[in-house]
């Protein structure tokens, strides 16, 4: 058997430990390959979808590099942890006469083998799932036609070369920095007794204080203050999380052990005694998993929430379809007749009406967009009455970031003096309702009596908004595109403007769909990495757990009690960092809700966090079943 064969058999022999590392690496390769397949698709040209889509291809390429860089550090960390668990094996090799250089060569060959296998497996899995992924991508990008299947030669070679280079660099790096301890330390690495875990009371208290302060700030801040509070909250919560796992958790377990009644009940003595060691040993890993998972939850939740905000904002800020005609528009009647003809040919049921807008300029040169009370009552569910000499100022005070965009503060009873010299008294200054908002340009609208409105002088900024209202506006995309192409052929024409909510929504959905697709892929890689850390840590302790439970079973531990103890310990290993991450993510997304004060994203927050939690439960059940099965097989 030559050296290469020895390295290959070593990989096969350690298949159980390598499984998590191999699967997560192959999964990362698959995600990168599928994403590259989408990014390089010959039919995908999001740059034509408008403002939101113009940077889409560039954004997708940037996401490739994000996945690639994160995968590099993830694999490097996994390999460094894996090498630490093989100290005894390395000690045996050295005792048999292997030199340090040969040991480093062995590690290099093993990494290269597993890297090649992961790359090939990931690409193969990506090809198998490619049709479904293309359909998913088409759906998330709101494309009219599903992307057709093609053999992704460019994506395949790009992925293969990129990841083989990555694995070669990591293999060389880990082999170069591999340090060997003395032979006796290597052989006794797994048998050295662990010291009793201890925790500092002050650091445990500090952990709780830092987390509470960070959460309190996150819940209190509103509007633009959220941006200023972001960095301090991240620092406080990160430090608090680290001490939570290294100090506070150990301190709580120590206190539980002092509760004799609880400690001596059933198998709690075994569970709590071992749990303190596991929490201390795995503290850094728990911290890493919690932070990575929090980033994944928050990133995807933020993108989903931002998309919801934009889509709801578009739906609430413009009518289903409108033709805005300004002064001196000689083509108005011709265009309106064309719009009505096209809508009738497409069997679109609609109601049409006109909202007349004028410019009401004050003596101090400040001006309002003004409409008559008759037009206002046409678009509002809440009817109002405005007498001559009075007015109602509707204000959209708060924007999506929670601050006042108005230039002045106006109050009930205030008198406005128009540039013509006539006076109007404000009888009310209410917030603008959502049903009115879609028909108003700007953040203020002055509602005047019909006589006062008609008395306003004409200006070039006067505009008649011809509204075509329909319930099924989502189904008007095709006719809207035709109308938009015909009417807006001359985009520089200042006399009219055609708008359709279906087109604006399509632009937002495509642009945000690309960003959401990017975030989803990156978030999945982060979450899988976190799960692989847990798997790797659990199965690296399997040999020592077998020795421990074999000894305890001789004292009378039943299979049912064994399953209960193992389930509790694995459950805590899997759910403690994830629950912490979900709490962090919920707080972060609640802060996002404070930022987008006008729109509720509670449904999106519950959907994202709930989905991740369900996936974690399924993952836990699968790993637990396999772990208990392996334990029972050797006991």
From TrEMBL:
Main localisation: membrane
Cross-referenced InterPro entries: ABC-4_Integral_Memb_Prot, ABC3_permease_C, ABC_permease_BceB-typ
Location of the ABC3 transporter permease C-terminal domain: 65-180
Keyword annotations from UniProtKB, A to Z: Cell membrane, Membrane, Transmembrane, Transmembrane helix, Transport
Membrane topology per record: Multi-pass membrane protein
Transmembrane helix recorded as keyword: yes
The protein, known as: ABC transporter permease
Source organism per UniProt: Paenibacillus alvei
């Amino acid at each position: 058997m030559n050296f290469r064969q020895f390295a290959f058999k070593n990989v096969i022999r350690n298949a159980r430990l390598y499984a998590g590392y191999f699967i997560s690496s192959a999964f990362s390769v698959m995600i990168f390959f599928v994403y590259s397949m989408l990014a390089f698709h010959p039919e995908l040209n999001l740059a034509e979808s408008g403002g939101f889509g113009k940077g889409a291809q560039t954004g997708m390429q940037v996401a490739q590099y994000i996945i690639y860089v994160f995968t590099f550090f993830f694999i490097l960390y996994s390999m460094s942890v894996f090498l630490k668990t093989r100290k005894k094996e390395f000690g045996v090799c050295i005792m048999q006469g292997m030199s340090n250089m040969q040991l480093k060569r062995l590690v290099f060959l093993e990494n290269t083998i597993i890297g090649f296998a992961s790359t090939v497996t990931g690409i193969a899995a990506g090809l198998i799932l490619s049709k479904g992924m293309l359909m998913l991508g088409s759906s998330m990008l709101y494309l009219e036609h599903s992307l057709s299947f093609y053999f992704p030669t460019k994506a395949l070679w790009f992925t293969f070369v990129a990841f083989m280079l990555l694995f070669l660099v990591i293999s060389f790096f880990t082999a170069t920095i591999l340090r060997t301890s003395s032979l006796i330390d290597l052989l006794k690495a797994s048998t050295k007794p662990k010291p009793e875990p201890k925790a500092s009371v002050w650091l445990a208290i500090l952990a709780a204080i830092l987390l509470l302060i960070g959460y309190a700030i996150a819940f209190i801040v509103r509007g633009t203050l959220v941006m200023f509070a972001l960095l301090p909250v991240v620092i406080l919560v990160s430090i608090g999380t680290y001490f939570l796992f290294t100090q506070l958790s150990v301190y709580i377990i120590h206190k539980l052990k002092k509760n004799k009644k609880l400690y001596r009940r059933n198998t709690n003595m075994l569970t709590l005694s071992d749990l303190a060691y596991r929490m201390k040993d795995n503290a850094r890993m728990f911290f890493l998993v919690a932070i990575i998972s929090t980033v994944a939850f928050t990133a995807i939740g933020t993108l989903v929430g931002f998309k919801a905000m934009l889509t709801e904002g578009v739906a609430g800020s413009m009518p289903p379809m409108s033709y805005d005609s300004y002064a001196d528009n000689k083509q108005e009647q011709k265009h309106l007749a064309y719009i009505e003809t096209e809508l009738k040919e497409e069997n679109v049921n609609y109601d049409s009406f006109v909202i007349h807008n004028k410019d009401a300029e004050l003596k101090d040169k400040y001006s309002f967009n003004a409409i008559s009370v008759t037009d206002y009552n046409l678009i509002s569910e809440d009817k109002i009455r405005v007498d001559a000499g009075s007015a109602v100022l509707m204000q959209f005070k708060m924007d999506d970031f929670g601050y006042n965009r108005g230039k002045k503060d106006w109050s009930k009873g205030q008198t406005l003096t128009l540039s013509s010299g006539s006076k109007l008294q404000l009888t009310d200054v209410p917030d603008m309702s959502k049903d009115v908002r879609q028909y108003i340009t700007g953040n203020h609208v002055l509602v005047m009596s019909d006589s006062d409105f008609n008395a306003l002088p004409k200006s070039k900024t006067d505009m008649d908004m011809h509204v075509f209202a329909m319930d099924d506006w989502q189904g008007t995309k095709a006719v809207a595109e035709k109308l938009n192409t015909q009417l807006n052929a001359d985009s520089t024409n200042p006399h009219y403007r055609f708008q359709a909510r279906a087109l604006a929504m399509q632009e937002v959905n495509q642009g945000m769909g690309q960003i959401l697709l990017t975030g989803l892929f990156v978030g999945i890689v982060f979450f899988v990495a976190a799960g692989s850390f847990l798997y790797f840590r659990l199965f690296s302790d399997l040999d020592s757990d077998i020795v421990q439970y074999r000894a305890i079973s001789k004292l009378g531990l039943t299979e049912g009690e064994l399953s209960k103890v193992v389930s509790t310990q694995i459950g805590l290993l899997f759910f403690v960092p994830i629950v912490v991450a979900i709490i962090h993510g919920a707080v972060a997304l609640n802060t996002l809700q404070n930022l987008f004060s006008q729109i509720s994203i509670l449904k999106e927050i519950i959907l994202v966090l709930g989905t991740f939690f369900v996936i974690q439960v399924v993952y836990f059940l699968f790993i637990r079943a396999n772990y208990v099965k392996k334990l029972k097989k050797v006991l």
